[in-house]
Every structure is written in structure tokens, then in C-alpha cells.
């Protein structure tokens, strides 16, 4: 593994920091003994520099983040830090002052983000699994862009930590979950929820084929349209997402734009966003009458690197939403979701398809996804 990584350029291996050998195991007989992971470079591993996606924000922590520390306590070892955009604010992976990882499937194109470095490392086989986080699609978007697997647990907040893997079984093991196949009614959503964008035909085809496979497996599958409050959900996402960053220091033009957006959110608007988030699962269940949904993950193929960094920040924000107009639904509603690669006839690159739980728990959503991705 180390030799393979060392022979690659940073754009290929997507590490912002790399050890000569993995950290010592804190528990050689633990449940995760033998697992060597990378950690997303927005999260702390004791003694490893954290860049927060910008060379200007780099510091070296004395202790690991809680999620990382729990993995270490179970025996997992860390080999380095995977690249992410500044503060994880974009759906690409182009950190300030650091190399920009290249998409293994689409040379010259973005691997997605913000856990893009993690997706690159798993797609290239450099690590079996990579740590990441998801606050608006940040695990699922790069997994879709790079042809690998992501699972976002329901969690208790807008953002949760998890992993990018090559199999749902590995995701389940790392989260210590036992997938169960649920009884469920499935909704197929191919119209974009949060942006007026034309969805590429092969993205729709992939989602329809996954839905058809679930139908053949005995599930009732129905087409459903965007729900009436979709615009309110995206407004809630914007308020929740940006308000957390209102106190960040000056950085790039884009991070300053998000910070200023957050400073413009009133207390009443933030309270309304939290209320919308709390009631969203019930709203979706009432509007759709399903237990889970299938959607494309991306509206079109990964664009060239620089697509989201060249425009002015408001234009970039809109363009990112157009690329992934379904992802943030599961963050606002704190719903479990998985992204799996699906082969489409006539195409070399797989297409990322999202399965998201409406009434399903984490283990049930994983069990449903395993029906179509073995």
C-alpha cells in the first residue's frame, strides 16, 4: 500500500499528509484491528496536521476528534489525511494552496466533494475504506463521481461522519450495523428537488433500473414528484449550513461568502429552519406515502476541475446545487442514505444512485441497498 501511494503524484493519491507507516494500534485485538484508514482533512488525528482544506488554516492537534478517537480505540490505524475543499464548503475537492485530486474515472475532472480525497483513495485501491463526513452530500457526491460506495447514517445533526468504501458490507461493519431487509414501499424521484436543471438521461436510466430491480425483488415501487415544500427545505439547509460558519476567520472569497450568508440569517429564520428539519420526515411520508426513495445522486457527469472555483461565489453555489439537487434532503431531514455505483449499458463509467430512508432506520436502509448492490 505505502509503495503504491509513494509512487503516485499528490493529484493521484489525494493525501494532504502521509505517514511513513500507519499509526500504532491502540487496541490490537479490537473490532477494527487490521483496518488502515485515511482521515478527512477537516477532522483531527492526534499529531497529524489538519489543513481544513486550506494551507493557511493548518494546525497540528494534540488529540483526535471524538469519532476518530473511537475508531482508534477499536483498533483502527490511520495512514494520513485525505484532501477536502476549504472547510468542506463545496462539492469539489480543490483545497487552497494544496494539490487538487484528479478523478480516477474522469481524468481532468473533479472527484466531487467534500470527501473527494477519500473517494479517490478508495477508487484507486489505496485504502480499503476512508473516513469522511457528509453535511450536504459530501460522502455521497464523491462516491457517485468516482464509482464507489458511501453510506450516510441518519445521525442527529445536519452533518455526520462516515466512510467511503467499495462495498456496503464494509460500511455496515465499520458502523457496527447488522443490515436487515425491510418491508418497504419505494418511491422513485428523478425530477430535481432543489434546482431547475436538466438531468442527464443516463442518470435517470440508472435510477429507474435500480427501482426496477427492487420491483423484481418484491417491493412496491411508485413514481413520485417533488414535494410542495422542497424550496422551504433548501432554504432551511442554507440557513442551517451557513449559520454555523458565521464566526470563521477570513479565507477565500467563497468561504467569506458562506460566512456572510450565515451572518445574514436571523434568529427567527434559524428557528424556522430547525422546525422545518424536525418535521421534514413526517412531511415527506405524508406527501409521498413511501418508506424510502431512489434518486440519481448527480444530475450530470463530473465537470472539469475548476468548474466551481472559477465563477463568483453566488454563481458557484447555484452551479453546485444544480449538480447535486437531491443530496441535502437527507441532511436536513437527518435521514439515512446510501450511494451505490450502477452499470448502465453502453457506458464504461458507473452511475451513482442514491437510496434514502424516509421511515427506515440505518440498518434497514443498508439492507435495502444490499438488495441491489451485492
Automatic annotation (TrEMBL):
The keyword Hydrolase applies. It catalyses: a monocarboxylic acid amide + H2O = a monocarboxylate + NH4(+). Gene3D superfamilies: Amidase signature (AS) domain. The keyword Hydrolase applies. The gene is amdA2. Its EC number is 3.5.1.4. Keywords: Hydrolase. GO terms for molecular function: amidase activity. This is amidase. Residues 24-166, 282-366 form the Amidase domain. InterPro entries: Amidase, Amidase_CS, Amidase_dom, AS_sf. PANTHER family: GLUTAMYL-TRNA(GLN) AMIDOTRANSFERASE SUBUNIT A, MITOCHONDRIAL (PTHR11895:SF7), TRANSAMIDASE (PTHR11895). It comes from Corynebacterium massiliense DSM 45435. Belongs to the amidase family.
